[in-house]
Amino acid sequence: MRSDEGQTAQRLRVVILGGGTAGWMVASGLSRLLPAGEYDLTLVESEEIGTVGVGEATLPHIKQFNDRLGIDEAEFMRATGATIKLGIEFVGWNQPDDRYIHPFGAFGEPWAGVDFQHHWARARLAGIDAGSLQDYSFAVALCRAGGFDHPVTDAGSIRSSYSYAYHFDAGLYAEFLRGWAVARGVKRVEGRIIDVTRDGESGHVTRLTLAAGNGIDGDFFIDCSGFRSLLVGGAMQVPWCDWSHWLPCDRALAVPSGRVEPLTPYTRATARKAGWTWRIPLQHRTGNGYVFSSRWCGEDEARDTLLGALDGPVLGEPRLLRFAAGRRARAWEGNCLAVGLSSGFLEPLESTSIFLIQAALFDLAGLMPRAGGGIDPRLAAEFNRLFEIHYDRVRDFLVLHYRANSRQGQPLWDHVRTMALPDSLLHKLALFREGAAAPDYKLGLFSRDSWLSVFEGQGVMPEGYARLADRLPLPDLQARLSALRGRIRDGLTAMPAHADFIARHCMAPDHAGSRGNAA
Ligand SMILES: Cc1cc2nc3c(=O)[nH]c(=O)nc-3n(C[C@H](O)[C@H](O)[C@H](O)COP(=O)(O)OP(=O)(O)OC[C@H]3O[C@@H](n4cnc5c(N)ncnc54)[C@H](O)[C@@H]3O)c2cc1C
C-alpha cells in the first residue's frame, strides 16, 4: 500500500547520528526536500565529542544546495564569514615555483563543434604561439586580477563563462544550518550514544542508547558520526577500502591566522616537502593547514613548515587531525546509510568532501524509503552504485596531482611519481596524451575543464588532437585564439575587487571596514 493511500498517520522515523557539516546538511536538506508529514527527522549530536570543524573551501555545487533550500546568499555569507572562491591556485606541484589555477570556469569555447582544447593542441603542434590554456579562461584572469562579480546570464558574454563557490567557517555553517533545520521541524537531541541495538533477525539497527540512559528508536538511520563511523563501520561492520597507497597523506595540522590584503578570491595549495599547505581567506581570518604524510614527516617538522608558511599573525595553536584515504565498501547497509566522513575521506586537496555530502543527500532524497514498506535492498544497491562512482572519480583526479609532479629528490614526491596507478586513471592519461581527450562526466566530479587545468598545469601535454579540429583553417584558428584572449582582457574592465564585492553585498557584522583594491 502506498503511503498516500490511507497511511497518512504512519511516518518513517529517520534518525541522523551526528551534527557536523554532514549531519546538518542532511537534516536541513531532507526537511526541505521530503514531503511534509511522511517523515520524522531526529538528529542526535554530542557537544562533548564535537565536530571536525575544518572544511572551509567548497565547490560551485554548494550554491545549488543553498538555492534548493531557499537560503539567501548574502545572509548565508554574512553568517559564515564567507568569501568567494573562483578556483584553486596550485603552487610548486610540478617544478618548485610553478603556478597554475584550477578555475571554476571554461577554457575557451567549442569551435566548429569541437572542444577548445583540440584547437589549442593543434595550434601548438602546428608551431603557432598559442600560449597556455590558462590564457583562455576568464575565471583564471579574474583570480589573477583579484576581482569578482556575479556571472552574467547572457551566454554570449565572456562574463558568463565561470561559476563560483565559497570559503566559509565550517563551524558557523553547521550552526547556520542547525538553526535552519530546527526551525523547520527537525528534532535535535543532545547526548553521547553509547550503545546500538540491532534486530536479531534482520540485523537492522532499531535503537541508539544515550549515555543518560534514554533511547532513540528509528526505522532508518543516517550515520554522520564522522571518522568514528559508529553505525556503518561499527555496528554494521562494512569493510573499509584503503587507498592510502595512492594518497599517502594521513595527517593535517590546521591553524588560523589574521586576515591580510588583498582578499584573494581563490584557495591556494602549495606543495611542500612531505605534502602541501592550504590557504583559505575568510572575511575575519585566514584558514591554513599542512596536509602531510607521517611516513615522511614528523609533527614538529610539520608544525614548523605550517607556521613558516603563514602570511598573517598566527591566531591559535595548530590542531592535529589524523585520517586515512579511502571509503567504505558500501555506504548503505541494511537500514543504515553513512554520509560524510563516516562514509570515507579523500584529502581536502580539491575540497570535495562537502560536495560528496551533498551528492549523497540528493541521491538519498531520490531513493528515500517510505513508511510501512520496509527497506528495499535495491534502493541501497542503487545508492551504493552512485556512491562508488562519486568516490572513484574524485580519487583519480586527486591522484593525478601527485603522479604528475617533477619534484625530483623528495621521497614523498619520488614515491607518488612512480607508484602504480588505478587502471581508470591510466586510461584517462593515455587518452589525453594521445588525442587531447579529457573526461566529461554527466555524473559527479570533475568536469573536462578541471582535468585540462591539472593536465597542463602539471606538464602532461597532448601529442595529438581530434581530427575534426583540422576543419578550421589555421589562419582562422590563429585569429580566433587572439580574439578570445582580447575578449578575456576586455571582460575584466570595471570588475569590482573581491573585497569591494564582499563589502557591498555580504559583509559579516564584525568585519565592516575591511576593503581591498582591484589588482
Ligand atoms: C584536514 C581536513 C580539511 C578539510 N577541508 C575540507 C575542505 O576544505 N572542504 C571540504 O569540503 N571538506 C573538507 N574537509 C572535510 C570536512 O571537514 C568534512 O567532510 C565535514 O566537516 C563533515 O564532517 P562530518 O559531519 O562527517 O563529521 P564531524 O564533523 O566529525 O561530525 C561528527 C558528528 O558526530 C557526532 N558524534 C560522533 N560520535 C558520537 C556519539 N557517540 N554520540 C553522539 N554524537 C556523536 C559528533 O559530535 C559530531 O556532531 C576537511 C577534512 C579534514 C580532516
Would you write up a description of this structure?
This protein is of the alpha+beta class and 519 residues long. The chain has 15 helices and 21 strands. Strand 15 (275-281) and strand 16 form a beta hairpin. Helix 1 runs parallel beside helix 6 and helix 9 runs antiparallel to helix 10 (377-403). The chain binds flavin-adenine dinucleotide (FAD). Flavin-adenine dinucleotide binds at residues 18-23, 44-46, 49-52, 54-58, 170, 192-193, 224-226, 228, 230, 252, 254, 289, 321, 323, 340-342, 348, 351, 353-354.
Give the SSE layout:
Blueprint lengths: L11 E6 L3 H13 L5 E7 L15 H9 L3 H8 L2 E3 L1 E5 L7 E5 L12 H10 L12 H8 L19 E3 L2 H14 L3 E4 L2 E6 L6 E6 L4 E3 L2 E4 L6 H6 L4 E3 L8 E7 L9 E6 L2 E7 L4 E7 L6 H11 L9 E4 L3 E3 L3 E2 L2 E3 L5 E2 L7 H15 L9 H27 L7 H8 L4 H13 L12 H10 L16 H18 L6 H8 L14
Helix pairs in contact: 1-6, 1-9, 9-10
Bound molecules: flavin-adenine dinucleotide (FAD).
